[in-house]
Amino acid sequence: MRSRSQSRLWTVLAVTWALLAVALYISITEGTFDISVKDVVKTLLRIDPVMEHDLVLFEFRLPRIVIGALVGFALGIAGAVVQGITRNGLADTGMLGINAGAGTATVLFMFLFQGSVTGLGTWSIMLMPLCGLAGGLLAASLIFMLAREGKRLDPQRLILVGIAIGSGFGAVTLYVSLKMNPQDFEMAAVWLAGSVYNANWTYVVSMLPWLLVLVPFIWMKSYVLDVLQLEEDSAAGVGVPVERERRGLLIACVGLVSACVAVSGSIGFVGLIAPHIAKRLVGLKHSRIIPVCGFIGMTMVVVADLIGKTVFAPNQLAVGIVISIIGVPYFVYLLFRTAK
Length: 340
Description:
By secondary structure, the protein is an all-alpha fold. The protein contains 14 helices and 2 strands. The longest helix is centred in the N-terminal third of the chain and has 36 residues.
């Protein structure tokens, strides 16, 4: 039975990697400036490098693809964690207002300390995830405090409180954005919609430490997420310190989201959709759900970015908007299914 589930896991991962490889191939080779696969390989291996190919690949396409992949991977895993610790299939970091809290803190940092959205230095970019972490933790603390009924977490109240908190942080973000000059306001609006078009290698470097530390921690805690699917008394009865583990996983989740929001703005619904697909494909064990969620999220963001920059060419649509076009109907479907 175990070998069968492992075989299913690797089959799902193989199919996901194949879809991702197709999206990567199209993203790298197609565009305003087409590059053949041969030229891509020669450029990557530094065989007779051409300046135009170097510029297109290393300055524009590859950073954007890598950032999209990392953001999707982190958001998919964060969604699995949030749904695991709340035992609510409708929970998502965007729906709960965590993205909004992290976004508000990041915009405040850019406005108050940098004075501009453009021209951020390396240290500023590296510090933005920390500011996002502060805002995300504030939002998460408010949500979990207000969504409690006695000592228990009310899943229905959690969604309502999350939407309210998210709206409040969104209003603060809009107010701060309106104080910016017109050029910065326009860039902030695009960034908040969820965009990776302005990606560069500094953004990649700012994300990597968060993923390298937090993703292994979450995966090692996958058995805790399995136990947390029980009622709180039952989970405590098998020796799991529920509140401590929940806080640790929540902080890790907010850290991942903050790193994502700092480089790509608020991209919603990835953390909602990826866990549902993963559970249908590989079952309910979080040691399998977490990696599958990561790669499903990665594929979703890379494909959505590809759609946004090709289908609407020469204009570009932010990846967050493309995913929302799919995510909103799916969320409504989940609401109706839950109500029934």
